[in-house]
Design goal:
Elements: H1 3-28, H2 30-42, H3 44-69, H4 73-77, H5 79-110, H6 117-141, H7 146-173, H8 193-198, E1 216-217, E2 226-227, H9 237-244
Antiparallel strand pairs: 1-2
Length: 245
């Protein structure tokens, strides 16, 4: 088995594992994944900087947590569990973010299509992961050429890191995928229920109540508002009759 064949099989294996994990996440945490995808679609640059800041603060946060646990004897015993929880949380954020960005990329290429929301999400996830895997397939095919292979692998690593950073930032900005966002997603095509769910809520209400003005009076002509006729001051009849007497 040549090195190119081994690299292609490795990329295919990662793609298969990613599809399995993506389907499991869609079945168990579809709302969280959808929230992350919405956040990444709304603000790519903001998600990137948030993800970059999270990466820079990941190791200091681990050190602070370890130091805080080392204050007490029970905390020292809990350091391995805290480190394991930190690693699992970081891996989960990266995985959830990658899957969310993959859905965004897949919907950009494949559109919404027909069918239920879950089928549209699976289709977008498949196309998105396939698009990400094609970069690594190209890098594997070019690995036999010394300079071109190194450049292709560098491009694949940089692109994957950028996608992972955007995804991690989307996870952080969406509060780990539990917030409900109203983000327009129509630029990725389609007018299905999926896009209707992602459309922003209207700021105007259709059931507006018009408060009548106090000086307005009814008028038989539709669309014309009549003003109240001014009332003329009246003389006191009783005082006039008294003067005559």
């Amino acid at each position: 088995m040549t090195a190119i064949t081994a690299s292609l099989m490795a990329v295919a294996g990662v793609f298969g594992i990613g599809m399995i994990i993506g389907v499991v996440v869609l079945m168990t945490a579809e709302e969280a994944l959808t929230a992350v995808a919405k956040t990444a679609a709304r603000d790519v640059s903001g998600s990137f900087w948030a993800g970059l800041l999270t990466q820079l603060l990941a190791v200091p946060a681990l050190l602070v947590m370890v130091i805080a646990c080392a204050i007490t004897i029970i905390g020292i015993l809990a350091i391995p569990l805290a480190a394991l929880a930190w690693a699992l949380a970081l891996a989960g954020a990266v995985t959830l973010g990658l899957l969310g960005v993959a859905i965004v990329i897949g919907r950009a290429f494949a559109g919404s299509g027909r069918g239920s929301e879950r089928s549209a999400a699976v289709r977008g996830l498949t196309v998105g992961l396939l698009a990400l895997s094609l970069i690594w397939f190209g890098a594997a095919l070019a690995s036999s050429v010394p300079v071109v292979g190194a450049l292709a692998r560098l491009v694949a690593v940089a692109f994957t890191w950028a996608v992972a950073t955007v995804g991690m930032g989307a996870v952080v900005k969406s509060r780990v995928g539990v917030s409900r966002l109203s983000v327009q997603f129509g630029r990725f095509g389609g007018s299905s229920r999926w896009n209707a769910k992602w459309a922003p809520a209207s700021t105007t209400s259709t059931n507006e109540v018009q408060v009548p003005v106090s000086w307005q009076t009814p008028t038989p002509v539709q669309g014309v508002v009549a003003a109240r006729r001014p009332v003329e001051p009246t003389t006191n009849s009783s005082s006039g009759s008294g003067a005559e007497l």
